[in-house]
Amino acid sequence: MMKVGIIGLPQSGKMTLFEILTGNKRKDGVPLSKATPGSADILDARFDALVSMYEPEKSARARIDLVLLQKMEPETIARGDIFRDIVDVDAICHVVRAFEDESVYHVDGSVDAVRDMDMVNAELLIHDQIFVEKRVERLEKALRKIKDEAQQKELALMHRMLAHLEGERPLRMMAMDADDEALIRSYPFITRKEMVLALNIGEDDIGTAPIAGEILTRCEAQRMKAMQVSAKVESEIAMLDTDEEKKEFMEDLGISEMALETLTRLCLEALGLVSFFTVGKDEVRQWLVRRNSPAPVAAGVIHSDLQRGFIRAEVMKYEELMACGDEAALKKAGKMNLNGKEYIVEDGDILNIRFKV
């Protein structure tokens, strides 16, 4: 399961966003002194359409783990707690305040999204830089005593990483081969993780204000995804009783998709994951697998026996199934294909695995 950590400065709206995404409400007066776990279904309109078509006895969406991390403030940064928590996630969602509200204080006295995102990014870079500098010291000390080829290779890599970080570039932008990856696999680097910037805007800016060019430029320069959300408004939508009311409210405000749908879509893209489905009258289910995975690997996501005894994958394309109306029409049109071990699973594929153990 994918795990995304939510970070941000005090009063950025990260707790509100976490509560919307997970449905978990923090108790009043409880300080945000440690990571708070939660989870949420991945929203995908294709899943809903398949459930409507098959009317299964049960259905299961893929899920995402979400973790609300401690505030990014001097005390937690100095102690290092926040960084230890970030190391444990697959991707980071950085909530940045862009809304004006006199009743909600700002730690720096004014709202400035560019300043805030730069400050947090700088802290993450410094964390990795300090680790690399200490590692360089240890390796140089060890190599003065005894020459070791593996340590020499690692030292050369650390010098490259240090130069990269000193150029204020996150490590996710640094080219590394398989040997490099193996050398640092166990190290607690933060800027190697994929990152989504969630700009928390005010109600008046919904549907009218595009993401500022300066923010997009910075995101592109640091290989970050970007989205806009009004956490306050979405928390109000979440309190409505019916889906019809929610849809009507969203249309009135010009909100095309909810924050969870946007965030999970961007996280899947960033982490290189695609969705595939299994269908039937008994169950419709959504699964996640690494992009460019062959069919047996996707089968293994469902169950290890399916990968071990894989014979063929019967593949239906979602768009073709919807266009034909049902499986019988799809089969008649000659668009239900049998594929072997070399078949690469694509986003939206519907698989039926044939296997023998």
Task: Chart the SSEs and their pairings.
Elements lengths: L1 E7 L5 H9 L13 E6 L3 H10 L3 E3 L2 E6 L5 H6 L1 H7 L3 E7 L15 H33 L3 H18 L11 H7 L9 E7 L12 H9 L2 E6 L1 H8 L4 H11 L5 H13 L1 E6 L4 E8 L4 H8 L1 H5 L1 E8 H7 L2 H6 L4 E3 L9 E7 L2
Helix pairs in contact: 1-9, 5-6
Structure description:
The chain is α/β, with parallel strands linked by helices and 357 residues long. The protein folds into three domains: 2-43 and 61-107 and 194-271, P-loop containing nucleotide triphosphate hydrolases (Rossmann fold); 122-184, Orthogonal Bundle (DNA polymerase, domain 1), CATH 1.10.150; 292-355, Roll (Ubiquitin-like (UB roll)). The chain has 15 helices and twelve strands. The chain has a six-stranded mixed sheet with strand order 2-4-1-5-6-7, sandwiched between helices. A three-stranded mixed sheet has the order 3-9-8, with helices on both faces. Strand 8 and strand 9 form a beta hairpin. Helix 1 (14-22) runs parallel beside helix 9 and helix 5 runs antiparallel to helix 6 (149-166). The radius of gyration is 23 Å and the shape is flat. The model has no long low-confidence stretch (mean pLDDT 89). One of its GO terms (molecular function) is ATP hydrolysis activity. Residues 129-156 form a coiled coil.
CATH topology of the largest domain: Rossmann fold
Our estimate of the beta-strand percent is 15-25%
Task: Provide the number of structural domains.
Answer: 3
CATH architecture of the largest domain: 3-Layer(aba) Sandwich
Mean pLDDT: 89
* SSE ordering: EHEHEEHHEHHHEHEHHHEEHHEHHEE
In brief:
Residues 129-156 form a coiled coil. With 357 residues, this protein is of the alpha/beta class.
